[in-house]
Amino acid sequence: MKEFLLVGAGGFVGANARYWVNASIARYVSASLPWGTLAVNVTGSFVLGAFLAWTTERVLADPAYRLLVAIGFCGAYTTFSSCAFETVRLWEQGHVWTAAGSLMANNFLALAAALLGVALARWA
What we know:
By secondary structure, this protein is mainly alpha-helical. The protein has helices spanning about 1-25, 35-55, 65-75, 80-90, 95-124.
């Protein structure tokens, strides 16, 4: 039961953080590209990469923290399912190049952010 509560608590915070980031970005940029989703995917990939590298290579962390942060928070915060749907929607609307660019940006930048997070956790 404790595990479910940890995942749920992390998920609650992650889902609300995702909503806040998306809403904040929407106030400042055009909706022509899902910038909020991109920001969440990149920052979430960074956090997950840094957290997992740090807690498996640098410190001895209680496994409960993985449930809270990696599965709960990052699982609810990152939005790759939203990315997939938004890409399909752009494609269906005839924005083929925008859809391709969004897909490439989300995948490339999120991968780069995860690598940066791992590198930072190993360096620090």
